[in-house]
Design a protein that fits this description.
This protein is mostly beta strands. It contains seven helices and 48 strands. Among the domains are: 139 residues, no CATH class; 87 residues, Sandwich (Immunoglobulin-like), CATH 2.60.40.
Length: 907
């Protein structure tokens, strides 16, 4: 077998100079190809010389070239970039007007103006069968898919990438004009959880007829125009022959070293019922369900209104941590998802899904830790080998009744069960002395929730919303640390033994009931008054028990040394408030003020503590619609957030072999100001898009930890500090299409400074992060398509006694080539360069993946040969920093994987 490392060393991107050369050549080639274009400009008006905004201008090539299109601006203007010397049919369409067609030869830059005449047939309400490639109506953009696709697309992801203004990233997030899609619908019904990942990676491309983008989406129709929504929904409309039919595909693959994958995606749609099943069985490191997907389960309109997390941080979910890992040395993953939507009658739908996931993983990290102790620092090398095994099942069932007048009653039941087991081996090396610690953890969690939602229009000017929910959760976590040496935090009263075995048992119980009533009063077209009354109740319990099990099986309990906790927690939030929403020209103002009464009671070890706080919290939002595709939004809020029950413990609890946490029973709430500014501008005709956002947060009173650090051992305790922290986040991006190319530039910047107490000294830390990047992407019909991306990030963490600087450089090339009608070749090359500027060290890693897919036209069978991590890289490197710990981290990866896959399409 050839030595891959030889090819790796000889590869074109051996050093960054060659990377820059390739980037320069790519841009040069792109420029030369683009120079073979000509521009057609003009305008579209009616017979009265009135400009027609959002008219479609299509350039359909006579030969087999890419179709081009434009949407007219407010003044009726348009611009098209066409291949020089080629013949095209120009077709201009606008609803209510007769379509005009003109054959041209793209020999030189030309100005062509069109006058459209009203269609008398439409005025007589005769049905029109012609649909526009792109239609825009208020907050909705509709794409007719067959105008942009070639028939070689496999999944919805491939379709979306060819639609103008739409982007799909590697994680499956979908963006339209720079704004992220927050909910996915199929035939106006939510697809599984509504998250885009399952949709774009599983819905077959040949089933899609239209794609709708619905901005300011609200699933409750009668609240449209009343409740502000930042949601962007994507609705997939199926082809007629897929609306009462089973379709989908099944993929099976095998690879070297016993690699395997089985991935069925089955769909059934009819006017009254839809059934979806997605399965995934693999040991290639692919996760169908991530931590982000888990968080999306907590979304929904009712959560936005109730929003308890705006003022209260709940118990940490012990099972969520098992979903956050993405890089493995080895992985076995099983996933199954079943989704059903059925119409019980004309007004009532039943919607439900079940998701099951099981993962058995192997992870390894090597960290160089620097502990910053005021004027000095302390270094540790730590090797962590983890074997987390987790499984969970999530069930959700909703009955949704919507009457003809818009009245909606919605009842939802939710159940989740998770069981997670992990054994972790840690090797800690300090001054050439090595200690090994084995950590075994077992976490089991149950969660049940009931939601009730009611929406009704009382009169033409008055609407009410009532929301109520109840949740019950229970968790048990057992953690065991084992070592042959006494490496534990000195405060722990450990007895001498031949082997040391320490335990932490944690039990949690939480109940929450919330209700909200909101009244909408439309005083006139430009003035609304909203009144809200709400109540939230939390009843939580948390108990911890720390002890040592000796070799003779006797127990050394740590309770006599201020360990062990048993706390009951009651929290009540009652509130009332009003919003005044009014419009002045193109500007919408929404000002609100809310009165909150917070009452907290805790009981632990016969000690009672009560806190009663009252706040008046203002909020302001200003939305300026300069025009439909150009907006400025501003928001200001004064917010409070109360500490979780874990931060109120009055005794110590063991969090790791070298760390102890103690709560603060007198800890009060945080109070902070938050401002955000967002600018959005896109033009489909000019094919340019701008997005700029800025967020500023200033904490008047914030919670920070008092840290006592000695070597690698530390104790943390929370405390409330005035002017505790300040954060600024600024993101900007610009993208522009030039013919078959799209250029993008982006910048992400964050700045934070915060106070902390380290070994009795108050100090201010400063963290800065900046990322600059750009990309060029092609969209050819008959040539290989490529995407070149480059970004560089700068991270700085500064304390009064030290400063750390890191740089990350990422260069990526993706190539996709459809050739000989039946073949699709894909490859992606990534070069990552990490530099620890403070220690003058770093490394460079090259990743290369490739695949070749074959499917004969009209055949149901497909074959794919793929190879991932061809260079067989062992690890990636990155950095992180916290209050007093700076880490240079190596994360080890799966080895090279070569797979042969066979797919069968159900049609």
């Amino acid at each position: 077998m050839p030595n891959i490392n030889i090819f790796k060393e000889a590869y074109l991107f051996k050093d960054i100079k060659k990377t820059r050369i390739f980037l320069f050549l790519s841009c040069t080639i792109a420029f030369q190809i683009y120079s073979q274009k000509i521009t057609i400009k003009g305008s579209v008006k009616d017979s009265l010389n009135t400009p027609l905004e959002y008219a479609n201008v299509l350039a359909e090539p006579v030969k087999d070239f890419q179709m081009e299109f434009a949407i007219t601006e407010k003044n009726g203007s348009f611009s098209l970039d066409l291949v020089k010397t080629q013949d095209y049919f120009l077709r201009v369409s606008y609803l209510g007007y007769k379509t005009k067609a003109l054959k041209i030869n793209a020999s030189k830059d030309t100005i062509i103006n069109f006058i459209l005449m009203q269609d008398d047939n439409l005025l007589d309400e005769i049905k029109i069968n012609t649909k526009l490639a792109v239609s825009i109506k208020k907050d909705t953009i509709t794409y007719l898919v067959n105008k942009f696709t070639t028939g070689e697309e496999r999944k919805l992801r491939d379709v979306l990438k060819k639609l103008p203004g739409i982007e799909v990233d590697k994680e499956g997030n979908v963006f339209s004009q720079g704004k992220r899609v927050t909910k996915v619908l199929v035939e106006n019904k939510q697809f599984f959880t509504g998250d885009s990942k399952l949709a774009v990676n599983n819905i077959p491309a040949d089933a899609v007829n239209e794609v709708e983008l619905l901005d300011n989406y609200n699933e409750v129709a009668i609240l449209k125009g009343l409740e502000n929504s930042d949601d962007l929904a994507m609705n997939i409309k199926l082809k007629k022959d897929k609306k009462k039919f089973w379709f989908g595909d099944v993929e099976v693959g095998i690879g070297v070293k016993d690699r395997k994958v089985i991935h069925p995606s089955l769909f059934y749609y009819s006017p009254k019922k839809s059934i979806n099943f997605i399965g995934d069985l693999n040991n290639t490191g692919t996760k169908s369900f991530t931590f982000k997907d888990y968080l999306d389960f907590e979304g929904g309109y009712s959560k936005i209104l109730l929003n308890p997390k705006a003022y209260f941080t709940r118990l940490n979910d012990d099972f969520s941590q098992f979903l956050s890992n993405t890089n493995f040395k080895n992985s076995n993953h099983t996933f199954g998802g079943f989704n059903i939507t059925a119409s019980i009658n004309q007004n009532t739908d039943l919607i439900g899904y079940t998701i099951y996931s099981k993962s058995e993983n192997e992870l390894e990290n090597q960290l160089n830790n620097t502990y910053i102790n005021n004027a000095s620092s302390f270094n540790e090398t730590r090797i962590q080998r983890q074997n987390p095994n987790n499984q969970f099942i999530i069930n959700k069932l909703t009955i949704d009744n919507t009457q003809e007048d818009g009245t909606k009653l919605k009842f939802t039941s939710f159940f989740k069960y998770a069981n997670n087991v992990s054994d972790n081996k840690t090797t800690s090396v300090i001054n050439n002395k090595s200690n090994e610690i084995l950590n075994i953890a077992n976490a089991e969690n149950y969660n049940f929730r009931q939601d009730l939602e009611f929406y009704k229009t009382l009169t033409s000017s008055q609407t009410i919303t009532f929301l109520s929910n109840y949740s019950y959760s229970k968790g048990n976590t057992n953690t065991n640390w084992i070592s042959t040496n006494n490496v534990f935090q000195p405060l722990i009263p450990v007895l001498d033994d031949t082997n040391y075995s320490l335990f932490n048992d944690k039990n949690t119980l939480s109940q929450n009931a919330s209700s909200l009533l909101k009244h909408y009063w439309v005083l006139d077209d430009f003035l609304h008054l909203y009144t809200t009354v709400g109540l939230d109740i939390y009843l939580d319990k948390l108990a911890t028990d720390e002890y040592q099990q000796l070799s003779d099986l006797s127990i050394n309990n740590f309770n006599s040394s201020n360990f062990g906790n048993d706390i009951e927690f009651k929290f009540l939030n009652s509130y009332i408030g009003s919003n005044l929403k009014f419009q002045k020209g193109k500007i919408i103002f929404n000002t609100g003020i809310f009165y909150h009464n917070y009452l907290r009671n805790t009981i632990q070890i016969d000690k009672k503590n009560q806190l009663d706080k009252k706040y008046v919290l203002p909020e302001v939002s200003i939305n300026y619609d300069i025009q439909r595709s150009q907006k400025i939004n501003f928001k200001y809020n004064l917010k409070v957030r109360f500490p979780s029950i874990a931060r109120l413990l009055n005794n110590y609890t063991l969090t790791n072999f070298n760390s102890i946490f103690r709560g603060n029973v007198d800890l009060e709430n945080e109070l902070y100001h938050q401002l955000s500014l967002y600018y959005y501008n896109f033009s489909l005709s000019k094919k340019i898009n701008y997005n700029v956002s800025a967020t500023y947060r200033k904490t008047a009173e914030g919670i920070q930890n008092i840290n006592v650090l000695e070597g690698i051992n530390f104790i943390s305790e929370p405390i409330l500090i005035k002017n505790a922290d300040e954060n600024i986040l600024i993101n900007a991006s610009v993208s522009k299409n030039y013919g078959d190319f799209k250029l993008s530039i982006n910048s992400n910047n964050s700045f934070s400074n915060y106070l902390q107490i380290l070994n009795s000294e108050l100090q201010r830390n400063i963290s800065k992060s900046q990322t600059l990047g750009g990309s060029i992407k092609s969209n050819f019909k008959n040539f290989p398509n490529f995407e070149v991306l480059y970004n560089k990030s700068f991270d700085n963490f500064k304390t009064p006694s030290s400063s750390s600087n890191f740089e990350n450089q990422n260069f990526e090339i993706n190539i996709e080539y459809d050739f000989l009608n039946d073949f699709i070749f894909k490859s992606d090359f990534t070069q990552q360069k990490f530099t620890n500027k403070s220690q003058n060290s770093g490394n460079r890693t090259n990743f290369f993946n490739a695949s070749l897919y074959y499917q004969k036209e009209n055949s149901l069978w497909g074959f794919e040969l793929s190879a991932n991590n061809i260079f067989n890289n062992q690890f990636i490197r990155n950095s992180s920093f916290s209050d007093f710990l700076i880490s240079d981290n190596k994360t080890f990866l799966l080895p090279r994987i070569i797979m042969l896959k066979v797919s069968y399409k159900l049609d």
